[in-house]
């Protein structure tokens, strides 16, 4: 048989599959209406298990694993279709729609903003890109920044979430699961580290270098050339520069921004010591209240799926079915729960999209725990 003849047979079968799938979904719609009338849940787990077992019995052994995957996906799509009939609205959808309607048309130019560190920190530089004029309150830790926003002490907080070289800032993800907030904007900041030391100090005099852990990771190659210097982790690159300036020592240096050299009276022994010339950190701007500004085209969510095979696959398949582009997937272990994980997603989707709204209505029923973190735009 020629290839064209095989393809003709496939086309004929596909047409029949489409007709049968459409018929099946119409019946699923009727089942959904019955469940509404009789106050029954959409998911009937026992029925699905029995169906999958029966399908396995009916399947040819050669294609049995593929048949199981196919029908699991069909059941998932059928359930999603029924969910939209039974629950055409949701509390989260109403909350998002209300935020779109009530949020100001323009992102504020002035605000009180919480940042971690001291003057000269990269968070402050990110804040300067976000706001025309900001009253910045500095805090010692990222947890303090979340707390300041959550308590209403500051309207906004600015926090680093990932770096193009060193990867995600894991501590931020852990704190995101503990605090109530919304992401209202994000910004990408070019990171350029310099080796800063007191004036008159030479590079060969340096015995200890201070900086933040992420900066140390971003400058690994350069630091190997400085061995056997001792590395000390600080809570912030600007804090490291300030400590070096106030230490009175002639054998210490800091990895920090060039701006901190002028700010703290230091000199740069070497500029741009990071491993990659294309070194960017993405910062998020958080708020206590849900605020969705015009142009929001990125959404962040967190969820905990059931600890069983295929749980994450079912979530990912829903993104695919709704044609939503997933641009980030991060996993973090759940404290006090062995080998269980929380997942963080970034979606590339206009907040006004019907598919995005459908996703909001469906997500909470797909997982054990679901947290909508906000929809926003990003400054590059």
Q: Termini, distance in Å? A: 56 Å
- SSE series: HHHHEHEHEEHEEEHHEHEHEEEHEEHE
Question: What is the overall pLDDT average?
Answer: 90
Q: Structural class per helix/strand content?
A: alpha/beta
| Alpha carbon gyration radius | 27 Å
Percentage of residues assigned to helices: 40-55%
- Count of distinct strands: 15
Low-confidence stretches: none
β-strand amount: 25-35%
Biggest β-sheet description: 10 strands, mixed
- Count up the helices: 13
Q: What overall form do the CA principal axes indicate?
A: elongated
Description:
The protein is α/β, with parallel strands linked by helices. 42% of the residues lie in helices and 27% in strands. It has 13 helices and 15 strands. Strands 1, 2, 3, 4, 5, 11, 12, 13, 14 and 15 form a 10-stranded mixed β-sheet that branches. Helix 5 (122-130) links the parallel strand 1 and strand 2 (133-139). The protein is elongated, with a radius of gyration of 27 Å. The chain starts with a helix and ends with a strand. The model has no long low-confidence stretch (mean pLDDT 90).
């Amino acid at each position: 048989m020629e290839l064209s003849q095989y393809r003709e047979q496939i086309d004929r079968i596909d047409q029949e599959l489409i007709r049968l799938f459409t018929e099946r979904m119409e019946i699923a719609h009727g089942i959904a209406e019955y469940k509404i009338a009789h106050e029954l849940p959409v998911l009937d787990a026992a029925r699905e298990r029995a169906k999958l077992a029966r399908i396995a019995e009916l399947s040819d052994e050669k294609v049995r694993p593929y048949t199981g995957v196919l029908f699991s996906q069909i059941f998932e799509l059928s359930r999603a279709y029924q969910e939209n009939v039974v629950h055409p609205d949701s509390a989260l959808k109403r909350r998002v729609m209300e935020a779109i309607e009530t949020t100001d048309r323009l992102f504020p130019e002035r605000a009180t903003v919480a940042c971690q560190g001291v003057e000269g920190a990269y968070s402050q530089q990110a804040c300067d890109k976000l706001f025309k004029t900001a009253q910045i309150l500095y805090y010692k830790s990222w947890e303090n920044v979340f707390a300041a926003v959550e308590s209403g002490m500051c309207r906004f907080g600015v926090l680093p979430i990932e770096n193009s070289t060193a990867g995600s800032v894991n501590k931020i993800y852990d704190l995101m699961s503990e605090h109530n907030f919304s992401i209202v904007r994000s910004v990408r900041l070019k990171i350029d580290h310099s080796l800063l030391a007191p004036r008159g100090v030479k590079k060969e005099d340096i015995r200890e270098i201070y900086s933040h852990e992420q900066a140390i990771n971003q400058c690994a190659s350069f630091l190997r050339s400085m061995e056997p210097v001792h590395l000390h982790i600080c809570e912030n690159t600007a804090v490291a520069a300030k400590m070096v300036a106030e230490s009175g020592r002639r054998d210490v240096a800091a990895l920090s921004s060039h701006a901190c050299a002028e700010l703290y009276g230091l000199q740069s022994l070497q500029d741009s010591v990071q491993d990659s010339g294309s070194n960017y950190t993405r910062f998020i701007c958080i708020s206590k209240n849900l605020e969705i500004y015009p142009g929001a085209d990125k959404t962040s969510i967190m969820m905990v799926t059931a600890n069983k095979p295929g749980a994450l696959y079912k979530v990912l398949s829903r993104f695919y079915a709704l044609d939503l582009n997933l641009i980030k997937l991060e996993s973090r272990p759940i404290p006090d729960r062995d080998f269980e994980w929380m997942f963080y997603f970034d979606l590339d989707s206009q907040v006004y999209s019907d598919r995005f709204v459908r996703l909001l209505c469906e997500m909470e029923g797909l997982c054990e725990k679901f947290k909508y973190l906000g929809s926003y735009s990003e400054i590059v």
